[in-house]
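Exercise 7. Predict the structure of Glutamine--fructose-6-phosphate aminotransferase [isomerizing] from Chryseolinea serpens.
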Amino acid sequence: EAIEKGGFEHFMLKEIFEQPRSIRDCMRGRLDSTQGRLVLGGLSEYITKLVNAERILIVACGTSWHAGLVAEYFFEEFCRIPVEVEYASEFRYRNPVIREGDVVIAISQSGETADTLAAIELAKSKGAIIFGVCNVVGSSIARATHAGAYTHAGPEIGVASTKAFTAQLTVLSMIALSVAQRKGTITEQKLHELLVEMETIPAKVEKALLLNDEIKKISALFKDSRNFIYLGRGYNFPVALEGALKLKEISYIHAEGYPAAEMKHGPIALIDEEMPVVFIATRDSSYEKVVSNIQEVKARKGRVISVVTEGDKLIPAMSEFVVEVPAVHDALMPLVSVIPLQLLSYHIAVMRGCNVDQPRNLAKSVTVE
Ligand code: G6P
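Solution. The predicted structure, encoded as tokens:
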């Protein structure tokens, strides 16, 4: 087992550090910015179904559902196709409306999640075309779908999903850009810009991983907190949800992720001088709005920890702790901004003496409903 962990103390940490490579593997042979080309072999036969889709329904659970939320923003922005992201467990039991022209995308690391599989079978029985985004080759979900793209992240052992999540984001971004290119909803120039940007992601993730020691220090200061709030907007909203999920999964600290502006409709009541509030506040189109949300938290004496874009001056001046990640296009930021949150939850859990690779009550793949 020590050998399998490759010198890391836990599988989770190893998998967090594998991300530059797993993201690169996921793009290998599929993306070529110099040619403006995206080749997703497993989709080719069915890609026109996605191009002509009137609506995309994404079904998933857990972390995969968060990847689906990022994809919603991505598909709507670049493909102009309406997207709905569904918890598979809800979708399967509520007699959902599935029309001709709807296309379903199922996301699953294991490819074995019972609720996601049942949601696929239901959608199929209503005539929908189903695409799969799975990590495990030959898994039940991969076999149940009409077409799909594997994430090629390699085996993920830690129960809390890390490298599978970023690989899902990578695949979904490639699918969306490929659809946008065919649909003509993106200019060649914008497409080129994004493809070039995608190729830089492994190096930027590498850079974000250099935050490890800094995050360890912050973790030591917050390890005894009883609650955490994670806030983000736009593409960073699902990242806030994912950060909170990671923390509660492995450290057993109660954590809530919220869209930053929605905070005033509830969570703001929880804020006092003991509440850590993690802002995913990178420089994007909602930056100014997030600045005012930070002010709202500070006014109530919350302890602000911010993830910002390198070189930002304003938010660091307002925060108690700051970690800087490299600049990336808004739509690809989740690939980088999630890294410090994975590390934060990891270190806090280790410091609390928790079993990070096999947290209590959780399973790597949930094959029962
Ligand atoms: C379990 C795992 C999570 C995972 C979720 C969905 O709860 O502990 O890490 O996100 O299932 O799993 P899937 O394999 O379908 O992505």
